[in-house]
Amino acid sequence: MSMTIPDTGNTPQKDNATNPAAKPNKGGLEGIVAATTAISKVDGTAGRLVYRGYDIHDLARTCSFEEVAHLLWFGHLPNQKELSELHERFTAERSLPENVLQTIRELPSTTEPMDVLRTAVSTWGAVSISGKPTIEQAIAVTARFPLILAAFNRLRNGKEILESRSELGHAANYLYLLTGEVPKDEHVQGLNSYLVLLADHGMNASTFTARIVASTESDIVSSLVAALGALKGPLHGGAPSKVQDMLRTIGTVENAEPWLREAITHGGRLMGFGHRVYKTADPRAEELREMARVADPDDFKLSRHVEETALALLDELKPGRRLYTNVEYYSAALMKAVGLSGDLFTPTFAVSRCAGWTAHILEQVSNNRLIRPEAEYTGPLNETFVPLADRS
Protein backbone atom coordinates (compact mmCIF):
# COMPACT_ATOMS: atom_id res chain seq x y z
CA MET A 1 0.00 0.00 0.00
CA SER A 2 1.43 3.34 -1.03
CA MET A 3 1.32 5.88 1.78
CA THR A 4 2.36 9.52 2.01
CA ILE A 5 2.23 12.07 4.78
CA PRO A 6 -0.75 14.40 4.18
CA ASP A 7 -0.40 18.15 3.97
CA THR A 8 -1.39 19.16 7.49
CA GLY A 9 -1.03 22.89 7.30
CA ASN A 10 1.30 22.87 10.30
CA THR A 11 3.33 26.05 10.65
CA PRO A 12 6.52 26.74 12.59
CA GLN A 13 6.13 28.10 16.08
CA LYS A 14 7.38 31.58 16.95
CA ASP A 15 9.53 32.34 19.97
CA ASN A 16 7.64 34.37 22.57
CA ALA A 17 10.42 36.94 22.55
CA THR A 18 9.64 37.83 18.94
CA ASN A 19 5.92 37.17 18.96
CA PRO A 20 3.97 40.11 20.36
CA ALA A 21 0.75 38.08 20.29
CA ALA A 22 2.15 35.41 22.61
CA LYS A 23 0.22 35.12 25.86
CA PRO A 24 2.02 35.56 29.18
CA ASN A 25 3.18 32.36 30.82
CA LYS A 26 1.26 30.84 33.72
CA GLY A 27 1.46 27.63 35.69
CA GLY A 28 0.91 24.50 33.59
CA LEU A 29 1.14 26.52 30.34
CA GLU A 30 -2.62 27.01 30.44
CA GLY A 31 -3.72 29.27 27.60
CA ILE A 32 -0.35 29.10 25.84
CA VAL A 33 -0.52 28.13 22.14
CA ALA A 34 2.45 25.82 21.53
CA ALA A 35 1.65 24.58 18.02
CA THR A 36 -0.89 24.58 15.24
CA THR A 37 -2.71 21.38 14.33
CA ALA A 38 -5.30 20.14 11.86
CA ILE A 39 -5.85 16.87 13.74
CA SER A 40 -8.31 17.58 16.54
CA LYS A 41 -10.04 20.41 18.34
CA VAL A 42 -11.22 20.40 21.96
CA ASP A 43 -13.87 23.02 22.73
CA GLY A 44 -14.09 22.91 26.51
CA THR A 45 -16.78 25.58 26.76
CA ALA A 46 -19.18 23.95 24.32
CA GLY A 47 -18.25 20.41 25.32
CA ARG A 48 -17.24 19.44 21.80
CA LEU A 49 -14.48 17.25 20.39
CA VAL A 50 -13.70 17.22 16.67
CA TYR A 51 -11.32 14.99 14.68
CA ARG A 52 -10.35 16.68 11.41
CA GLY A 53 -13.76 18.36 11.18
CA TYR A 54 -15.90 15.39 12.28
CA ASP A 55 -17.87 15.48 15.51
CA ILE A 56 -16.81 12.76 17.95
CA HIS A 57 -20.42 11.60 18.48
CA ASP A 58 -20.78 10.69 14.80
CA LEU A 59 -17.44 8.89 14.72
CA ALA A 60 -17.99 6.94 17.95
CA ARG A 61 -21.41 5.69 16.87
CA THR A 62 -20.59 4.71 13.30
CA CYS A 63 -16.85 4.21 12.68
CA SER A 64 -14.34 1.49 13.42
CA PHE A 65 -11.07 2.35 15.09
CA GLU A 66 -9.30 1.64 11.81
CA GLU A 67 -11.45 4.24 10.02
CA VAL A 68 -10.61 6.85 12.64
CA ALA A 69 -6.89 5.98 12.57
CA HIS A 70 -6.99 6.48 8.79
CA LEU A 71 -8.71 9.82 9.32
CA LEU A 72 -6.06 10.96 11.79
CA TRP A 73 -3.11 9.78 9.67
CA PHE A 74 -4.28 10.62 6.15
CA GLY A 75 -6.67 13.49 6.79
CA HIS A 76 -9.84 11.88 5.41
CA LEU A 77 -12.17 9.01 6.17
CA PRO A 78 -11.35 5.98 4.02
CA ASN A 79 -13.44 4.49 1.27
CA GLN A 80 -13.93 0.73 1.30
CA LYS A 81 -10.78 0.04 -0.72
CA GLU A 82 -8.64 2.23 1.53
CA LEU A 83 -10.11 0.66 4.65
CA SER A 84 -9.43 -2.86 3.34
CA GLU A 85 -5.86 -1.90 2.54
CA LEU A 86 -5.36 -0.50 6.03
CA HIS A 87 -6.80 -3.65 7.61
CA GLU A 88 -4.40 -5.74 5.53
CA ARG A 89 -1.51 -3.61 6.67
CA PHE A 90 -2.55 -3.92 10.32
CA THR A 91 -2.83 -7.69 9.89
CA ALA A 92 0.63 -7.91 8.33
CA GLU A 93 2.11 -6.10 11.34
CA ARG A 94 0.48 -8.29 14.01
CA SER A 95 3.58 -10.08 15.20
CA LEU A 96 6.28 -9.58 17.82
CA PRO A 97 9.92 -10.51 17.18
CA GLU A 98 11.58 -12.97 19.52
CA ASN A 99 13.70 -10.33 21.26
CA VAL A 100 10.53 -8.44 22.26
CA LEU A 101 8.83 -11.61 23.48
CA GLN A 102 11.95 -12.50 25.47
CA THR A 103 11.92 -9.05 27.07
CA ILE A 104 8.28 -9.52 28.07
CA ARG A 105 8.97 -13.01 29.45
CA GLU A 106 11.85 -11.78 31.60
CA LEU A 107 9.84 -9.05 33.31
CA PRO A 108 8.38 -10.05 36.70
CA SER A 109 4.69 -10.94 36.63
CA THR A 110 4.11 -8.13 39.13
CA THR A 111 5.35 -5.47 36.69
CA GLU A 112 2.82 -2.75 35.91
CA PRO A 113 1.45 -3.26 32.37
CA MET A 114 2.24 0.38 31.51
CA ASP A 115 5.90 -0.33 32.30
CA VAL A 116 5.77 -3.50 30.22
CA LEU A 117 4.31 -1.58 27.29
CA ARG A 118 6.93 1.18 27.55
CA THR A 119 9.79 -1.32 27.80
CA ALA A 120 8.61 -3.64 25.02
CA VAL A 121 7.87 -0.78 22.62
CA SER A 122 11.38 0.55 23.23
CA THR A 123 12.85 -2.92 22.62
CA TRP A 124 10.91 -3.29 19.38
CA GLY A 125 11.97 0.14 18.18
CA ALA A 126 15.64 -0.52 18.87
CA VAL A 127 15.77 -3.17 16.15
CA SER A 128 12.87 -2.18 13.89
CA ILE A 129 12.85 1.61 13.49
CA SER A 130 15.27 4.10 12.01
CA GLY A 131 15.07 7.36 10.15
CA LYS A 132 12.37 10.00 9.95
CA PRO A 133 8.89 9.01 11.22
CA THR A 134 6.56 7.67 8.52
CA ILE A 135 2.96 6.54 8.28
CA GLU A 136 4.23 3.01 7.68
CA GLN A 137 5.97 3.15 11.05
CA ALA A 138 2.84 4.61 12.67
CA ILE A 139 0.77 1.66 11.46
CA ALA A 140 3.42 -0.86 12.50
CA VAL A 141 3.68 0.37 16.09
CA THR A 142 -0.06 0.98 16.53
CA ALA A 143 -0.74 -2.60 15.44
CA ARG A 144 1.66 -3.94 18.08
CA PHE A 145 0.49 -2.10 21.21
CA PRO A 146 -2.34 -4.56 21.94
CA LEU A 147 -0.11 -7.56 21.12
CA ILE A 148 2.39 -6.52 23.79
CA LEU A 149 -0.25 -6.07 26.47
CA ALA A 150 -2.07 -9.29 25.65
CA ALA A 151 1.18 -11.30 25.60
CA PHE A 152 2.20 -10.07 29.05
CA ASN A 153 -1.28 -10.51 30.48
CA ARG A 154 -1.44 -14.14 29.36
CA LEU A 155 2.08 -14.92 30.59
CA ARG A 156 1.43 -13.47 34.05
CA ASN A 157 -1.68 -15.64 34.27
CA GLY A 158 0.21 -18.79 33.28
CA LYS A 159 -1.22 -19.00 29.76
CA GLU A 160 0.34 -19.31 26.32
CA ILE A 161 0.60 -16.31 24.02
CA LEU A 162 -1.90 -16.46 21.16
CA GLU A 163 -1.57 -15.67 17.47
CA SER A 164 -3.72 -12.89 16.05
CA ARG A 165 -6.73 -13.71 13.89
CA SER A 166 -6.65 -11.92 10.55
CA GLU A 167 -10.44 -11.72 10.21
CA LEU A 168 -10.79 -9.71 13.42
CA GLY A 169 -10.61 -5.94 13.62
CA HIS A 170 -8.32 -4.04 15.98
CA ALA A 171 -10.68 -4.05 18.99
CA ALA A 172 -11.91 -7.62 18.51
CA ASN A 173 -8.41 -9.00 18.03
CA TYR A 174 -7.21 -7.32 21.23
CA LEU A 175 -9.99 -8.94 23.23
CA TYR A 176 -9.35 -12.30 21.58
CA LEU A 177 -5.62 -12.14 22.38
CA LEU A 178 -6.44 -11.39 26.02
CA THR A 179 -9.07 -14.09 26.54
CA GLY A 180 -8.57 -16.73 23.85
CA GLU A 181 -12.24 -16.48 22.94
CA VAL A 182 -13.97 -14.67 20.11
CA PRO A 183 -15.49 -11.71 21.98
CA LYS A 184 -19.18 -10.88 22.17
CA ASP A 185 -20.42 -8.33 19.67
CA GLU A 186 -21.47 -5.89 22.39
CA HIS A 187 -18.01 -6.08 23.93
CA VAL A 188 -16.35 -5.42 20.59
CA GLN A 189 -18.68 -2.52 19.94
CA GLY A 190 -18.03 -1.06 23.38
CA LEU A 191 -14.25 -1.34 23.17
CA ASN A 192 -14.21 -0.06 19.58
CA SER A 193 -16.18 3.03 20.62
CA TYR A 194 -13.78 3.56 23.50
CA LEU A 195 -10.78 3.36 21.15
CA VAL A 196 -12.41 5.88 18.81
CA LEU A 197 -13.25 8.28 21.63
CA LEU A 198 -9.76 8.26 23.16
CA ALA A 199 -7.74 8.29 19.92
CA ASP A 200 -6.87 11.97 20.17
CA HIS A 201 -7.56 14.96 22.37
CA GLY A 202 -5.71 18.07 21.31
CA MET A 203 -2.50 19.21 22.99
CA ASN A 204 -2.71 17.09 26.13
CA ALA A 205 0.38 16.31 28.21
CA SER A 206 1.39 13.10 26.45
CA THR A 207 0.76 14.45 22.95
CA PHE A 208 2.76 17.58 23.74
CA THR A 209 5.55 15.35 25.05
CA ALA A 210 5.54 13.29 21.86
CA ARG A 211 5.71 16.42 19.72
CA ILE A 212 8.58 17.85 21.76
CA VAL A 213 10.65 14.70 21.23
CA ALA A 214 9.71 14.57 17.54
CA SER A 215 10.77 18.21 17.13
CA THR A 216 14.34 17.21 18.03
CA GLU A 217 14.33 14.94 14.94
CA SER A 218 14.35 11.85 17.12
CA ASP A 219 12.61 8.66 15.96
CA ILE A 220 8.94 7.76 16.27
CA VAL A 221 9.47 5.15 19.01
CA SER A 222 11.43 7.54 21.21
CA SER A 223 8.55 9.99 20.90
CA LEU A 224 6.04 7.29 21.82
CA VAL A 225 8.03 6.02 24.79
CA ALA A 226 8.13 9.58 26.13
CA ALA A 227 4.37 9.89 25.58
CA LEU A 228 3.78 6.65 27.47
CA GLY A 229 5.75 8.03 30.40
CA ALA A 230 3.50 11.09 30.46
CA LEU A 231 0.29 9.07 30.14
CA LYS A 232 1.26 6.86 33.06
CA GLY A 233 0.94 9.75 35.51
CA PRO A 234 -2.29 9.77 37.55
CA LEU A 235 -3.00 13.39 36.62
CA HIS A 236 -3.21 12.35 32.95
CA GLY A 237 -4.11 8.77 32.09
CA GLY A 238 -3.29 6.81 35.20
CA ALA A 239 -6.55 7.11 37.12
CA PRO A 240 -9.38 5.11 35.44
CA SER A 241 -8.94 2.10 37.70
CA LYS A 242 -9.32 4.40 40.72
CA VAL A 243 -12.91 5.05 39.63
CA GLN A 244 -13.56 1.35 40.09
CA ASP A 245 -11.86 1.49 43.47
CA MET A 246 -14.20 4.32 44.50
CA LEU A 247 -17.31 2.49 43.28
CA ARG A 248 -16.20 -0.67 45.03
CA THR A 249 -15.74 1.27 48.27
CA ILE A 250 -19.20 2.88 47.96
CA GLY A 251 -20.63 -0.55 47.32
CA THR A 252 -24.37 0.13 47.26
CA VAL A 253 -26.85 2.68 46.00
CA GLU A 254 -27.88 3.42 49.60
CA ASN A 255 -24.30 4.25 50.61
CA ALA A 256 -23.67 6.63 47.71
CA GLU A 257 -25.06 9.87 49.16
CA PRO A 258 -23.44 9.71 52.62
CA TRP A 259 -20.09 8.52 51.24
CA LEU A 260 -19.95 11.20 48.55
CA ARG A 261 -21.09 13.97 50.89
CA GLU A 262 -18.42 13.02 53.40
CA ALA A 263 -15.73 12.95 50.70
CA ILE A 264 -16.68 16.32 49.22
CA THR A 265 -17.12 18.02 52.60
CA HIS A 266 -13.70 16.93 53.82
CA GLY A 267 -11.80 17.75 50.63
CA GLY A 268 -11.65 14.25 49.21
CA ARG A 269 -11.23 13.82 45.48
CA LEU A 270 -14.02 12.20 43.50
CA MET A 271 -12.45 10.07 40.81
CA GLY A 272 -13.98 10.60 37.37
CA PHE A 273 -15.26 14.13 37.94
CA GLY A 274 -13.78 17.43 36.74
CA HIS A 275 -11.54 18.17 33.76
CA ARG A 276 -8.79 20.68 33.04
CA VAL A 277 -10.42 21.76 29.76
CA TYR A 278 -14.12 20.84 29.81
CA LYS A 279 -16.33 23.26 31.75
CA THR A 280 -19.44 21.35 30.73
CA ALA A 281 -20.19 17.70 30.01
CA ASP A 282 -17.31 15.78 28.42
CA PRO A 283 -18.72 14.51 25.08
CA ARG A 284 -16.70 11.32 25.41
CA ALA A 285 -18.31 10.57 28.78
CA GLU A 286 -21.74 10.93 27.20
CA GLU A 287 -20.96 8.25 24.62
CA LEU A 288 -19.23 5.95 27.08
CA ARG A 289 -22.22 6.14 29.43
CA GLU A 290 -24.41 4.49 26.81
CA MET A 291 -21.74 1.91 25.97
CA ALA A 292 -21.45 0.99 29.66
CA ARG A 293 -25.24 0.71 29.96
CA VAL A 294 -25.31 -1.91 27.20
CA ALA A 295 -22.16 -3.77 28.22
CA ASP A 296 -23.16 -4.45 31.85
CA PRO A 297 -26.66 -3.27 32.86
CA ASP A 298 -26.30 -4.46 36.47
CA ASP A 299 -23.05 -2.63 37.28
CA PHE A 300 -24.33 0.38 35.35
CA LYS A 301 -27.07 0.96 37.92
CA LEU A 302 -24.59 1.77 40.68
CA SER A 303 -22.34 3.79 38.34
CA ARG A 304 -25.24 5.90 37.12
CA HIS A 305 -26.65 6.48 40.59
CA VAL A 306 -23.26 7.55 41.94
CA GLU A 307 -22.81 9.89 38.98
CA GLU A 308 -26.19 11.56 39.44
CA THR A 309 -25.71 11.86 43.20
CA ALA A 310 -22.18 13.25 42.85
CA LEU A 311 -23.22 15.87 40.30
CA ALA A 312 -26.07 17.04 42.53
CA LEU A 313 -23.78 17.24 45.57
CA LEU A 314 -21.04 19.04 43.66
CA ASP A 315 -23.58 21.61 42.52
CA GLU A 316 -24.77 21.99 46.11
CA LEU A 317 -21.41 22.01 47.90
CA LYS A 318 -19.13 23.43 45.21
CA PRO A 319 -21.38 25.94 43.43
CA GLY A 320 -19.85 27.63 40.41
CA ARG A 321 -17.01 25.11 40.09
CA ARG A 322 -18.56 23.54 36.96
CA LEU A 323 -17.44 20.01 37.74
CA TYR A 324 -18.85 17.33 35.44
CA THR A 325 -18.31 13.66 34.69
CA ASN A 326 -15.10 13.13 32.74
CA VAL A 327 -13.97 10.42 30.35
CA GLU A 328 -12.37 8.32 33.10
CA TYR A 329 -15.65 7.65 34.91
CA TYR A 330 -17.37 5.50 32.31
CA SER A 331 -14.12 4.34 30.74
CA ALA A 332 -13.60 2.35 33.92
CA ALA A 333 -17.11 0.89 33.86
CA LEU A 334 -16.89 -0.04 30.19
CA MET A 335 -13.47 -1.66 30.37
CA LYS A 336 -14.47 -3.66 33.40
CA ALA A 337 -17.59 -4.79 31.54
CA VAL A 338 -15.60 -6.08 28.56
CA GLY A 339 -13.34 -8.06 30.88
CA LEU A 340 -10.20 -5.96 31.38
CA SER A 341 -8.47 -5.91 34.76
CA GLY A 342 -7.95 -2.53 36.40
CA ASP A 343 -4.23 -2.33 35.65
CA LEU A 344 -4.98 -2.70 31.92
CA PHE A 345 -7.22 0.39 31.83
CA THR A 346 -4.48 2.97 31.27
CA PRO A 347 -2.46 0.79 28.86
CA THR A 348 -5.64 0.31 26.83
CA PHE A 349 -5.94 4.09 26.76
CA ALA A 350 -2.49 3.99 25.13
CA VAL A 351 -3.70 1.40 22.58
CA SER A 352 -6.20 4.01 21.45
CA ARG A 353 -4.07 7.15 21.80
CA CYS A 354 -1.18 5.65 19.81
CA ALA A 355 -3.07 6.63 16.65
CA GLY A 356 -3.32 10.24 17.78
CA TRP A 357 0.25 10.39 19.07
CA THR A 358 1.65 9.13 15.79
CA ALA A 359 -0.57 11.51 13.80
CA HIS A 360 0.82 14.42 15.82
CA ILE A 361 4.38 13.17 15.41
CA LEU A 362 3.90 13.04 11.64
CA GLU A 363 2.34 16.49 11.65
CA GLN A 364 5.25 17.87 13.70
CA VAL A 365 7.96 16.50 11.43
CA SER A 366 6.14 17.53 8.25
CA ASN A 367 6.99 21.18 8.97
CA ASN A 368 9.27 21.04 11.94
CA ARG A 369 10.79 23.56 14.26
CA LEU A 370 12.46 22.59 17.51
CA ILE A 371 10.06 23.19 20.40
CA ARG A 372 12.05 25.26 22.87
CA PRO A 373 9.92 27.40 25.21
CA GLU A 374 11.36 29.80 27.75
CA ALA A 375 11.05 29.68 31.53
CA GLU A 376 10.58 32.70 33.76
CA TYR A 377 13.52 32.71 36.14
CA THR A 378 12.56 33.43 39.77
CA GLY A 379 15.89 32.78 41.50
CA PRO A 380 18.46 35.23 42.86
CA LEU A 381 20.78 37.41 40.76
CA ASN A 382 24.20 38.94 41.42
CA GLU A 383 25.31 36.56 44.15
CA THR A 384 28.91 37.18 45.31
CA PHE A 385 31.11 34.18 44.53
CA VAL A 386 33.10 32.79 47.49
CA PRO A 387 35.95 30.32 46.90
CA LEU A 388 35.47 26.88 48.46
CA ALA A 389 38.15 27.38 51.12
CA ASP A 390 36.43 30.55 52.37
CA ARG A 391 32.86 29.20 52.59
CA SER A 392 31.59 28.71 56.14
Automatic annotation (TrEMBL):
Signal peptide: none annotated. One of its GO terms (molecular function) is citrate synthase activity. CDD domains: BsCS-I_like. It catalyses: oxaloacetate + acetyl-CoA + H2O = citrate + CoA + H(+). GO terms for biological process: carbohydrate metabolic process; tricarboxylic acid cycle. Residues 1-19 have a biased composition (Polar residues). It comes from the Bacteria. GO terms for cellular component: cytosol. Residues 1-27 are annotated as: Disordered. The active site is at H275, E328. Pathway: Carbohydrate metabolism; tricarboxylic acid cycle. InterPro entries: Citrate_synth-like_lrg_a-sub, Citrate_synth-like_sm_a-sub, Citrate_synthase, Citrate_synthase_AS, Citrate_synthase_bac-typ, Citrate_synthase_sf. The keyword Transferase applies. Keywords: Transferase. Belongs to the citrate synthase family. This is Citrate synthase. The lineage of its organism: Bacteria, Bacillati, Chloroflexota, Ktedonobacteria, Ktedonobacterales.
